[in-house]
Every structure is written in C-alpha cells, then in structure tokens.
From TrEMBL, chain A:
Its EC number is 1.15.1.1. It catalyses: 2 superoxide + 2 H(+) = H2O2 + O2. Homotetramer. This is Superoxide dismutase. Mn(2+) binds at residues 30, 74, 166, 170. Transmembrane segments: none annotated. Residues 5-81 form the Manganese/iron superoxide dismutase N-terminal domain.
From TrEMBL, chain B:
Residues 128-229 form the Manganese/iron superoxide dismutase C-terminal domain. It is an enzyme of class 1 (oxidoreductase). Destroys radicals which are normally produced within the cells and which are toxic to biological systems. GO terms for cellular component: mitochondrion. Belongs to the iron/manganese superoxide dismutase family. Residues 39-118 form the Manganese/iron superoxide dismutase N-terminal domain. One of its GO terms (molecular function) is superoxide dismutase activity. This is Superoxide dismutase. Its cofactor is Mn(2+). Its EC number is 1.15.1.1. Mn(2+) binds at residues 62, 110, 196, 200. Keywords: Antioxidant, Manganese, Metal-binding, Oxidoreductase. InterPro entries: Fe/Mn_Superoxide_Dismutase, Mn/Fe_SOD, Mn/Fe_SOD_BS, Mn/Fe_SOD_C, Mn/Fe_SOD_N, Mn/Fe_SOD_N_sf, SOD_C_sf.
C-alpha cells in the first residue's frame, strides 16, 4: 500500500522577505535544503514501513518521528512568519491572543522575556513554542504556556502550537558580521529580532481554532 | 565516576581544569567541588591552521565563544551548587545537575576535541599507527571501515551531539558511540577520538552539507593524541 507522499510546502513570501531579521541565504538553505531533507527522509521511511518486518518497523519509528517532526515543525514555522512590513506582523492582528497573553504574562514584552528564557535554556537543538491547551478557554486565563521541545520533537498531545521558533543553529548562525543584524553564536539577538517577523494573524487563527486548524498547513503539503 | 574521569582524562583536560576536579554527576554527592575555576585551554595551533578542512573563522568562534560559554556556565553551575550546599539545600544543589552536565560536558568534550585535532601534515591526517592501528584492525577491519562507521554515526545524530571512538576501560575493546548534546563520555568508557557534530562546528563553511565536513575532518585528526589516550 503506497502511503501518501509529503511535499515541501511553499512559503507565502520570498526568501529575502524576512530581511534583515532572517537573511535570504538562511531562508533558502533552511527551506530548500533542511526542510526538503526532512520531507524526503520522512517519505523514504514511510515508503519502506508497510512492507518492513515488525523489528524493522520499530527501527523506522525513530526516523519517522525525527523527520516527520522536522516536517511538521518547519511547516508551522514558515506559516507563523511574515515580512515585517506586513500588517500581520503587528500584534494588533491578534486581539484575542494578545488579551490572553496580557492575562498570563502581563504584556507581549512579558511573553517575549519568557520565550527568550525558555529558548536560551535549550541544551542542544530544539524549538520553543507558545501553545494553548486544547479545551482551555480560548480567551481565558491559563490556557497559554511556553514549551521548549528538543531536536525535532513536535508538539503533540493536547496542545495547539501557536507560535514556534526554531532554535537549531542552522536557523540563525550564517548571519555574520557583514549583515545589519548579525547572530553567529549570538542566539539571544536572533530571538530578539525574530519578533519583528512573527505572523500574529496566523497566531490568532491558531489560538482561536483547534489542532485541526493549527495543523491545516500540513494538509496542503500532502 | 569523577575519579575515573580524571584517570581517563588527557593532559588537555587536566590543563583545562587546572586544579579543578573534573565534573560528573558523582560530584554532586561529593563533599568538595572545585578548588580552582575551569579556564579556557589554549590551542596548540593557530585558528587558521586547520584550513581548508575547518575554517579559521569557525575555529575562532568555536574556541573563543562557544567553548568559553561552556567554561563560564560550568563555573556558574559549580558556584550555585556550592552556595546551595553551604545552605544545606541539597534539593536545590541537585537541581543544577543538568547545567553541570551540559556545561561541564561542553568543557570536557571541547578540550578533548582541540587536542585530537592537528594541522594536516603537521600531526594531523594520515591514519592510526602502532597498537592503536592493530586494535582498530581487529575491531573494525581497518581504518577505512572505522572512518565509515564513525561518519555514519555522525550523520545519524538527530540533533546536536558528538561521535566518539572509545575504549572500554574494563573489557578493553574499542567501539564507536554517539552522545547527545554535551553529554560527556562516562563510566568505563574512555574517549579516544571525538568529533563535534553540532552545527556550529561546520555550518559557516559547509552549511547543510555536513557529510562533507565529516569527510574532511579526518584530514586533521591527531592520531598521536588518539593513540596516547589508549591504554
Ligand atoms: Fe530548522
Ligand atoms: Fe562545539
């Protein structure tokens, strides 16, 4: 039985559209190489899965989790970014979410400080996510949390990913001194600057919707 | 565990930690921690000396920034543990164990890494010799199969981490293992050769083409150091 083949989703903007926060070179490599490799490896693992023996299937599960997670996480990431000039990059594009953030962290600044602390605490490769607990009251207090995940572990279970930030070194390292904003090993400034290209409209939609809506980006890449 | 780490450590590690005891989880239960502070060890070659296989820019950032951050993190963790311990708050002291493992591991791993590298043609490259070559032949069927095995291990790391050629201090045999993030090689295993598979180790030069870095790094492996680590 042939399993559906996953495809690399297209970005809703050009590779250079997130400059100066994220350089075109990083976006190009990140999307056309890193994400494409997760998709290719996921498809390869799924293709051999159904005809594999049970021990081989168990061995393939690590590859499916890693590459499937990589595909899910990057698909969510591209959709929660937008050019800084877009109205969607303004937190006002997410009135309900901002209200809830205010109740939880006092302000967007409070959220940003908490996200930064979580991101800097990751020991190795990983992601930091703003999530909402499914079933939690959308506009109510307590539904929002910050969750760091390791490597390509996706946010699974009862949580809805709202904003994800890739904390792998490949996400920022190439921005060296010649760039207006430079990172290299300075991941704190990468986190500071990525807020200028966060897509608050997408974040609001994920916040108000369920997991179905949050993961809808994956359906379009099947 | 801490003392076995000390026994297996190299001169680089001893120099790097000076009077400091190497860190390990066992250190938490110990009565004394570190007398001196961990310091960044000097490299025995210039930043540009491993080119074209590892760029000078990578070496400089890797040593001066990344390794220094682990040194600072280790010293901070040790200090916080000592403070908590002095107040008799063992739960709080224990809560710093992950930081100690991460930064202590980062310091140990990088100290070993710098010493198991050398400029190509000036101690770097070629292949294992003497007893080490004999052991590698017996275990892996030769240097080339070892290289392939280690490169496959490096390529298989899902995230950040290291691949190590290790010797079992009790049973004696060689093997290739991987460690996640900055987890150091511990227990009866003795690190002989470590390759850093974090993206910061190659990204500025090789970007996503990490297999090219894993191939190139063998041109700067210091086999004399690796051989000396074997008992
Ligand atoms: Fe990524
Ligand atoms: Fe490193």
């Amino acid at each position: 039985m042939a399993s559906p083949t996953h495809k690399l989703p297209s970005l809703g903007y050009s590779y250079d559209a997130l400059e100066p926060a994220i350089s075109a070179q990083i976006m190009d490599l990140h999307h056309s190489k890193h994400h494409a490799t997760y998709v290719a490896n996921l498809n390869a693992a799924l293709a051999s899965y159904s005809s594999a023996s049970v021990p081989d299937q168990i061995a393939l599960q690590a590859a499916i989790k890693f590459n499937g997670g990589g595909h899910i996480n990057h698909s969510l990431f591209w959709a929660n970014l937008t050019p800084a000039s877009s109205p969607d990059a303004n937190p006002q594009a997410a009135p309900q979410l901002i209200k809830s953030i205010g109740e939880t962290w006092g302000s967007v600044g409070g959220l940003q400080a908490a996200v930064k602390a979580a991101a800097l605490g990751i020991q190795g490769s990983g992601w930091v996510w703003l999530v909402r607990e499914q079933g939690g009251k959308a506009a109510g207090r307590g539904g929002l949390r910050i969750v760091p995940t390791k490597d390509q572990d996706p946010v699974v279970g009862g949580e809805i990913p709202i904003i994800g930030i890739d904390m792998w070194e490949h996400a920022y390292y190439l921005q060296a001194r010649q760039f207006p904003l430079h990172y290299l090993n300075g991941k704190a400034s990468y986190i500071d600057n990525i807020w200028s290209v966060i897509n608050w409209k997408t974040a609001e939609e994920r916040f108000l919707g369920g997991r179905e809506e949050a993961f809808s980006v994956l359906k379009s890449s099947l | 565990m801490a003392s076995s780490l000390l026994r297996t450590s190299t001169s680089a590690l001893r120099a790097a930690t000076r009077s400091a005891k190497p860190v390990g989880a066992a250190g938490l239960a110990g009565t004394s921690f570190v007398r001196g502070k961990a310091t960044l060890p000097d490299l025995s070659y210039d930043y540009g000396a491993l080119e074209p296989h590892i760029s000078g820019k990578i070496m400089e950032l890797h040593h001066k920034n990344h390794h220094q951050t682990y040194v600072n993190g280790l010293n901070a963790a040790v200090e916080q543990i000592q403070e908590a311990q002095a107040k008799g708050d063992m739960a709080k002291a224990a809560s710093f164990a992950p930081l100690l493992n991460f930064h202590g591991g980062g310091h140990i791993n990088h100290s070993l890494f710098w010493e198991n590298l050398a400029p190509s043609g000036k101690g770097g490259g070629g292949g294992p010799e003497g007893e080490l070559a004999k052991e590698i032949d017996e275990t892996f069927g030769g240097f080339e199969p070892l290289r392939k095995k280690m490169n496959a291990a490096l390529a298989g790391i899902q995230g950040s981490g290291w691949a190590w050629l290790v010797q079992d201090g009790e049973k004696g045999g060689l093997s290739v293992i991987t460690k996640a993030n900055q987890d150091p090689v511990t227990g009866s295993l003795k690190p002989l050769l470590g390759i850093d598979a974090w993206e910061h180790a190659y990204y500025l030069q090789y970007q996503n083409r990490k297999a090219e870095y894993f191939d190139a790094v063998w041109n700067v492996v210091n086999w004399e150091t690796v051989g000396k680590r074997m008992s």
